[in-house]
Structure formats: structure tokens, C-alpha cells
Amino acid sequence: MSLPLVFIVAVAKNGVIGGDNKLLWRLSGDLKRFKALTMGKPMIMGRKTFDSIGKQLPGRETIVVTRDANWRHAGVHVAQDLDGALVLAQTTGQRMGASEITVVGGGEIYRQLLPLADRIEWTQVDLAPEGDALFPPLDPKEWRESAREAHLRHPEAGDEADYAFVSYQRITNGR
Predict the structure, then answer these.
(1) What is the pLDDT of residues 151-172, one digit of tens each?
(2) Could you tell me whether strands 5-12 and 101-103 are parallel, antiparallel, or unpaired per DSSP bridges?
(3) Minimal CB count within 10 Å: which of 66, 101, 142, 169?
(4) Cα–Cα distance for residue pair 104/4, rounded to 1 Å
(5) For residue 94, what pLDDT is reported?
(6) CB of 15 within 8 A of CB of 133?
(7) Element (H, E) at 22
(8) Contact between residue 63 and residue 84 where contact means Cβ atoms under 8 Å apart
(9) What domains appear along the chain, each with residue ranges and CATH number?
(10) CA 95/CA 3 separation, integer angstroms
């Protein structure tokens, strides 16, 4: 049985997820949620996303998708394409006893894997920054909101905006 594919993403009101290969906001609650949602699971990401994080995150198996056959990083699995990444994530996830595979960016990885996603854990950020990485629009015929939890900005925690945690479930079989 294959493990479900779950996107973890923070998206501004204008669809922006990043710019110049970095996050464009700081939300402490979103970082904690990211850790909780990815801990003990394989994470698929593009090389630019990995470079923006800068290191392997503890407690997770990182799978980096890159066309660069020479790219390596200690402790990180490398896949030359998305098909290879998905196979590697399935075998790694089953070995780990993970309940799902997480996809954590960037924009092109999200766009290409969206037809295969089962669920999206979306942080809706109440900002509209300029950026060069976008999340693809969701088709309301394929996705339904299943949960929402609003959060006010906490400046003392370093939050830069109000935000909401939103869960989307696929309602059609995109596979």
C-alpha cells in the first residue's frame, strides 16, 4: 500500500510562497507546525528549497530532487527526477514506519506533484509580498477545505502577520 502524499506549504494572499530562494515572512507558529507535520516522515523538496534551508533537518529523511548528477549533501537522499523521488520516499517512509510522505517545496515541485497530492496542510498568510515562487491555484472541484484554525499575529514571538492553518482534502481522484 502506498503512503499518502501531503503538501506542507505557507502561502500569501497573492499565491506567493517565496522570493529570491527564501521565505518572505516569519511566523513562529508556522515553523512549529512544519516541524510537527514533517517529523518522522520523508520530505521531498527541490534543491533550491534545500539550499534555502541550508541543512538536513533532524528527525526526518530528506529527499532532494535535482538534475545535477554531481550534487550531494551528507545524510540527504538525492533523486534525479520526481518519479525517482516518489519511489525513494515510499520505500524510505515504509522503512521508517511513517504514516505519509511530505512535500515541502518549492513552487515547481508543488506544481508538478499537485495531481498526485492527497492532502494539503496550508498556512494562509495574511500578507501579499512580491515574490518569484508561487503555489499553483487549487481547483475547487478537486479540493475541499476540511479544517481551519485562525491565529492572530504575536509580535513578541516574532510573527509578521495574522495567519490560518487550513487543511484541504482531495475530493476527486487526481491520479
Answers:
(1) 999 989 889 999 999 999 999 7
(2) parallel
(3) 169
(4) 14
(5) 96
(6) no
(7) none
(8) no
(9) 5-170 (3.40.430.10)
(10) 11
175, pLDDT greater than 50 = no
Sign of CA dihedral 31, 58, 135, 98: negative
Which pLDDT belongs to residue 161? 96
Radius of gyration of the chain (CA): 16
Q: For the chain, give the mean pLDDT.
A: 94
> 10 Å Cβ neighbour count for 22?
12
pLDDT (0 to 100) of residue 5: 98
* Integer angstrom CA distances of residue 86 from 44, 78, 131: 8, 11, 28
Q: Give the tens place of pLDDT for each residue, 10-51.
A: 999 999 999 998 889 999 999 999 999 999 999 999 999 999
Cell digits of residue 33: 507546525
Q: What would the grid cell of residue 124 be?
A: 494562509
Nearest to 56 by CA among 36, 78, 80, 84: 78
pLDDT of 173: 58
Question: Among all chains, which residue has been given the C-alpha cell 524510505?
Answer: 92
Where helices occur in 54-147 by DSSP H, the ranges are 82-96, 107-113
